Amino acid sequence: MAASSQTLPLSSLNTTEIPIQVIETEENKIQESAVSGFDYSQRGQWLRAAVLGANDGLVSVASLMMGVGSVKEDAKAMVIAGFAGLVAGACSMAIGEFVSVCTQRDVEIAQIKREKRKRSSKSIRNDGKLPNPVQAAIVSALAFAVGAVLPLLAAAFVRKRER
């Protein structure tokens, strides 16, 4: 197994350079190519939408239901308000995410066109790696609905207080 050695400078805050020994082996190159073969930025697009959607669904619908519950002591009214909040919030999150990702996609397409003009023969980016606004909208709406279901399920355990 052939190995090459390379020394790279590592700068600290005081601009002192510390040499670091990097040994490149065939095994390291194989592992690096296997890891770099998958584009994690694509996963990040829908994962971000899912996390934000679920968080917003949970907080928004729970807050809405608590507000209705503080005005009217009726679990049915809380559930109806929560369900209405789930539908409205899921639609709102989907539309917002779609518009946001479309804008991001347009910016990236413009950047690709600029790069193609500069390098006329070859582009650095691949058009297949552009963000998908429909996927982000669906994931965001579903995640909002999943987050919003939790306070609705909790309302099933609310009992009317006897006076």
For the largest beta-sheet, the strand count, sense and barrel status come to:
2 strands, antiparallel
Helix/strand order: EEHHHH
Mean of all residue-level pLDDT scores:
78
Strand order of the largest sheet: 1-2
Query: What is the number of E strands?
Result: 2
Describe the fold and architecture.
Helix 2 (40-71) packs antiparallel against helix 3, helix 2 runs parallel beside helix 4 (133-155) and helix 3 (75-119) runs antiparallel to helix 4 (133-155). The chain has 4 helices and 2 strands. By secondary structure, the protein is mostly helical. The chain has a two-stranded antiparallel sheet. It folds into 2 domains: 1-37, no CATH class; 40-155, no CATH class. A hairpin with a 5-residue loop joins strand 1 (3-11) and strand 2 (17-25). It is elongated and about 75 Å long. The model has no long low-confidence stretch (mean pLDDT 78). The longest helix is centred in the middle third of the chain and has 45 residues, at 75-119.
Mind sketching the topology for me?
Elements: E1 3-11, E2 17-25, H1 26-36, H2 40-71, H3 75-119, H4 133-155
Antiparallel strand pairs: 1-2
Helix pairs in contact: 2-3, 2-4, 3-4
Keywords for this entry:
single chain; 163 residues; mainly alpha; two-stranded antiparallel ribbon
